[in-house]
């Protein structure tokens, strides 16, 4: 009995997808920082102070974004 030959599945560009998502997450966080900077409470704070406060020093931006989304109104 002969086995039917399958066409190889296209390999997804995982690295490209990760880089695209990383850019989206960074843009989301940068947007949130800009939003805080424009507020009355944030206008006198340096951007890096706002970033540190928002990320709480976490280097995983995906986790940071998920935390922001979980606490958003």
| Number of DSSP-assigned strands | 0
**What Rg, in angstroms, do the CA atoms define?**
20 Å
Strand % is under 5%
Question: Based on CA inertia axes, which overall geometry fits?
Answer: rod-shaped
Uncertain runs with pLDDT below 50, 5 residues or more? none
| N→C terminal distance | 62 Å
> Which secondary-structure class do the elements indicate?
mainly alpha
| Helix proportion | 55-70%
Biggest β-sheet: count, sense, barrel? Answer: none
Order of helices and strands: HHH
Count of alpha/pi helices:
3
Mean pLDDT: 89
Could you explain how this protein is built, in words?
The protein is an all-alpha fold. It has a domain of 48 residues. The protein has three helices and no strands. Helix 1 crosses helix 3. The radius of gyration is 20 Å and the shape is rod-shaped. The N and C termini lie far apart (62 Å). 1% of the residues are buried.
Write the layout of secondary structure elements.
Layout: H1 14-38, H2 47-55, H3 61-71
